[in-house]
């Protein structure tokens, strides 16, 4: 089995087959040439972790490390370790295994809902998604058959420099309706959070000689408030540092009414070949 259909919906890309207690099997489509898409591996690992947690406990953070490039011509096995089940928090660790080797590891924390006072950053200015530019990339890819993207900034140059490093901004959502469970939407957003985030590092170096090769090293997401990933979210990204071939990127997701629902940070290896 390979995921090369151009009409798969996002929920299908996150499906896993239970094999045994704490063991699941999934398939991934291509991201970079000959490699499984890292956002899908992370999202499937979170799906496996969430399958072992009571539904009233919602994931609030995940931290993942990409160890080896995954292949698309064989399945990935996800092994869940039930690290802790506390009074308010649950912790899970997941290792993704392919061909007998670990390719990705993830730690995720889940929490019972809690009330209290709140504060958040203000949503950056952006035109509404219905007037933003439609993504003109290759629509034949599995990734873009499942995700709708509308750019606020130029995809080649990003936003003007404001002293925070290269920046870009776009509206994103799953093209098709997702199940009405919180886990489905946080896993979908984990998938989406790896789209163009690493590329933010590349923006000021686009004229350097050679072809840039980007590899994600680690990926972390924090979920702040409830949301739906099949409704428009503003993805605001910046890269404050690039040195020793390693770039750091941050991103935030806002709903159309200005609620900050998730934050993401990634370190990426970028080399020009």
TrEMBL record:
Pfam families: 4HBT_3, 4HBT_3C
Domain Acyl-CoA thioesterase-like N-terminal HotDog: 31-111
Alphabetical list of SUPFAM superfamilies matching this protein: Thioesterase/thiol ester dehydrase-isomerase
Keywords, ordered alphabetically: Hydrolase, Lipid metabolism
GO BP terms in the entry: acyl-CoA metabolic process; fatty acid catabolic process
A molecular function GO annotation: fatty acyl-CoA hydrolase activity
Domain Acyl-CoA thioesterase-like C-terminal: 128-270
Signal peptide limits: none
Catalytic activity: a fatty acyl-CoA + H2O = a fatty acid + CoA + H(+)
Keyword Lipid metabolism tagged: yes
Region (Disordered): 115-135
Subunit structure: Homotetramer.
Family, as annotated: Belongs to the C/M/P thioester hydrolase family.
Protein name (record): Acyl-CoA thioesterase 2
Organism: Amycolatopsis panacis
